[in-house]
Batch of 2 targets.
Target 1
Amino acid sequence: MTQATVELDYGPFKGRKMTLWEIIHSDYLTEEQRLELIRQFRSGKVTIEKLLKIIITIVEEKEAKKKEQSSFKGLRDHVPADTLFDSKIIDKTTFDLLQQGKTTPKKVSENPNVSKYLQGTESIAGIYLEPTKEKMSIYQAMKKKLLRHNTGLSLLEAQAATGFIVDPVKNQCLSVDEAVKAGLVGPELHEKLLSAEKAVTGYKDPFTGKKISLYEAMQKDLILKEHAIPLLQAQMFSGGIIDPVKSHRVPTDVAYQKNIFSKEVAKTLSESSDDNKPFSDPETDENATYKQLKDKCQKDKDTGLYILPLSKPQSPTIVEKTYLYTEEQTQSDLTNTQIDIPIEGLADKPMNLWDVMNSNLLPEHERQKLLEEYRSGKITKERMIIIIIEIMEQREVVIHDSPLSYKTIRRRITIEELYNARIIDLETYNLLKQGKRDIRDIMEMTSVKQYLYGTGCVAGVTTDSSAKISIYQAMKRGFLKPETGLTLLEAQAATGFIIDPVKNETLTVDEAVRKGVVGPEIHDKLLSAERAVTGYKDPYSGKVISLFQAMKKDLVPEDYALKMLEAQTATGGIIDPEFQFHLPADIALQRGYINKETNEKLTDSVKGFIDPVNEDQLSYADLLKRCKLEGGLRLLSLGDKRLTFKGLRKQITMEELIRSQIIDQQTVTELNEGILSVEEVSNRLSRYLEGTSCIAGVFLESSKERLSIYQAMRKT
């Protein structure tokens, strides 16, 4: 037991390695538990591993109980006293009393000024039907046709977003899952209410992985503003904005400080303009704010809950569609169903049904019709797949038989797409439609090619000793620093393709890795850059968005995005992720793939690339000007850049090593041909470049002391 050790993450032993013996004899175990465990171990009934598990379980249970006793019950988790003090919910005096053990969290929680932030049961809890004097839940009122579906749903979403689904009859507050299990709400509302409950439990930022608030999710466009505003309004007028990380409400000024709310939004929510009334008053059928509905409520004398009085059933709408599946259920079902696409170039890439329904593979009217029929239960998923494949196959036959489309590396492009993007004019479009011009001739026009393929990126480099080499080979041979080379390769991927300048091939990132043009160690980084062409998936809407849109939603770091956007503008224009070709500047602005402010910034101030010859910070446009045009490819000349090796005090050139007879001509040739790298030669010559080892100090045997030479001199 003295040999087995464990490191605890809590309690007085936090961060320390403790032996099993020490923990067994600590206050975590009673004397009875201690003796019983030692007896079982000695008799061989439990192994050391089993004993370790038992003891860790006992320690964890004790710590959990201690945490529960010393903290406050929040909306979903226990809240320490210092968190409430930091959020200005309790004052310094109360905090000190808690720390000294002179009061308890339970006693402090009884204060209404504290409890309203911890639990917050000030939402509209239910309905009071005046003619029958009956009190009922929102869901019951919906089922009894006293409330319209949309009216009741918005009130239930407000409950979920403010902490709990409320049973006003039993005076219970339940999570959404608990409410469904208890029959307080029906399973058909489960997904929608879980979505609203994220306002309490937090939204996951898809790229940082961090938990964020409702307001932050709205700011990042992870939730639509029209969905967020009613929930924020309900929080604001039912006790305060919720901090999902700390699991409690906070005073408004603290919410501002934490950036989980803003004064501008607070002001908007306080206004009672028509645009700011997302709820419906079931009594008058007029639009209302959450505060206006709350002001109409009666406070139940038994429970203290807010109950909305109703004198008569709410009038039904003229037409109210009913669906078998909610939007969330539909998305979940379709996301989990794979489909093989019968289209050239996509046949080996299975997609899920939801992605297909949000792509340009189907006409918009067909997508809407299929979704409507599936949600209403008219067709099954299996039937939907058959219909989709039939539509795609028919479109593919038409496209292949038509002289009005052209196959590029990534996809087949139609003349409608070219005309809509103003890449060809109306006259050319009409001549193509009439068969008076051949689309292949049009595709060879410089004015068209510059948008379809770009005007050319930095394709490779040239050196004194070699004609041309790829960016990746230049990195490997030591002509380019790894970070400089990677940025140039990312720019290639983000402007269309990875280039093999030796074979004059344009390749997708996957193809480039398969053919060895770039190494697998940078595959993921280049795939990420390639999404500037193929589009980013919005994690909440499921739709494909552009690089600029991803930047605005904080899905891509701004400095990285601006660098890649500047490279796109320098090589033909911003790329449309739906059609995957460059766009004229005015069309990119119209389609929302860039805005004027960012466009001006790209022209004036973005210098995200380094000239490998002199280390100058340049824009991609300026870097292209330093390239030589050779065989239609832009090659960056490294003629003035010499291979250097790290010496004792400075970089040593290859010429200096030759003159000192440290390397021979064969090594030089192997370096230039890429057979050897600078790193390999440096390791081989380290004794010349950096030395081996000198006498570093003195070891005093009598005291086992290690001294520097100077210390040894001083001691004498």
Target 2
Amino acid sequence: MKIQNKFLLGAASLALMGMLSGCVSFSDCAAMPGDADTDKGNMPFVAQARKDYEARKQFKRKVVIKMSEKGYRFLTVDPRRRGSSRIFLTDGLRRDLMATADSTLTNIVSTMQDFELVNSESSLRTTPGATITRVPAAPQAPSGPYLLTFNINDVEMSDANDAIRGVTNIADIAMSASGASRNSRRAVQRANEIHWYYANVSLEVTLTAPNGKNVFNFAETVVYPEMLPGNRPSESTLKQAVAHAVREAMKQYVIAFGPPLYVDQTVGDGLFARLSAGSEYGISKGQRVRFFRWVSRQVPTLPGEPEKYEASKQIIREGVVGYCGAPVDRDHAWVYVDGNNEPGKKSVFTWTSAEIVK
């Protein structure tokens, strides 16, 4: 299935799922006696994870931001090779898009507690149409800064009307067969004349440690969620799409290296669980959450060796952030945990651990 069809059908399926599920609204739920239950066995693991995270926050990592070597492929592609995109990618536009990625990434990193931005190759962040000089990647000493590289593999502007047209054509045929009025049919036909443009951005963001170890890698095609009507595609929409893709990439970094997630409150006898972090750490409506608890088990040892134990995850349930009207705030996010309030089946409590499902 094409990306544009996934984009359109995905939005419709979320709305349909809400109507069919008949879920209880968050606003109709209140704290109940069962919401005072805690996951006592998991509490020590959460406490240790929080302690480790606070210790890690005390040390900022120096980081250098630069475009990866692969970025020059995007900058030097023949602009006549438009492919399926609805907009010509001129040399100047390609540079502007790469500069947008650079400046967006720099702005995000400059506000993060994890990093101290010590240098950034600012040749990209210049006036539109400026020449970008290729600078060879210098070898890094083991004690040097982290390297955060970015690259745009491809961008594509598409017309959602291509997918909508098939639906409206079917509707027009059905209305014609049923004897619908001319005005009604004209309204359907007019929908075919409206162009809704959206963008896809294939982006890579990689964080490399001073010793050369790959710490984080994001390589995905991100669909810009806003479709705008117009007679022709807009370059500004394409730039916004690139900035959005960079933000999505860094959301994944924050989720991976942010504070440990756990449930700090429930309502509706466990039907809704509140996470210990929110949008500040990349958590957003619609994300799936996996709940688990840490289980310690003894591992085999040789005769005479002391006893050894290791912790492993025991998956309990899954839920959806922001579902059924659950709010998502900067420092907390509520998750709908389907079936967790059923008698004898409750398994998610305060202090139960959680993680975002990628």
